[in-house]
Amino acid sequence: MASIDVNQIAKGMKLEIEGYPYEIVDYQHVKPGKGQAFARIKLKNLKTGNVVEKTYKVGEKLELADFEEREMEYIYNDGESYYFMDTKTYEQVGVSETALGEKAKFLKENTTVMVQFYKGEAISVKLPKSIVLQVTDTEPGFKGDTVSNVTKPATLETGAVIQVPMFINPGDYVKVNPETGEYIERVNIK
């Protein structure tokens, strides 16, 4: 496995620490007035989703993770795992529901995602920045409900429940940020 010096780290880089894959979320190089320089690194565990902060002295070596991302299409779930297909090779892989966590609520069949592999095993999924989904159930809106900061719950076609503005009705399509579960805008689909 390849290793790098602490001075070479960058945001988004994948490292292997204590047998787990981590992604660098943020880092800060610190050069105190006295003593040796160090790097304070915020890391996200790609298997569990936990975020930790670690400190390394300049000159220490870090191991790069055996990590790969492939574009795949979500095809179905069997109650325990979600299955994705590589559209070039037609290879199918499953990712457990626990590994997906809250992201599973926004998965719709035929959605293209980035499946993350660690040592050849599919461990997680990176969803697009926004997903368009249909509202299946919400209280009806009324003419004049245009105040932007008043929201109501709405159930989407995938079963996810998000907060939407009062003017959204059942049957409307909305763009949602799947990372935060926040409403972005209403979308007109003909």
UniProtKB/TrEMBL annotation:
Keywords attached to this entry: Cytoplasm, Elongation factor, Protein biosynthesis
CDD domains on file: S1_EF-P_repeat_1 (cd04470), S1_EF-P_repeat_2 (cd05794)
Gene Ontology MF annotations: translation elongation factor activity
InterPro entries reported in the protein's UniProt record: Elong-fact-P_C, NA-bd_OB-fold, Rib_uL2_dom2, Transl_elong_fac_P/YeiP, Transl_elong_KOW-like, Transl_elong_P/YeiP_cen, Transl_elong_P/YeiP_CS, Transl_elongation_fac_P
One Pfam family cited in the UniProt record for this chain: Elong-fact-P_C
Locations listed in the record: Cytoplasm
Pathway entry: Protein biosynthesis; polypeptide chain elongation
Protein name: Elongation factor P
UniProt-listed HAMAP family: EF_P
PROSITE patterns: EFP (PS01275)
Coiled-coil stretches noted in the UniProt entry, renumbered to this chain: none
Listed Gene3D superfamilies: 2.30.30.30, Nucleic acid-binding proteins (2.40.50.140)
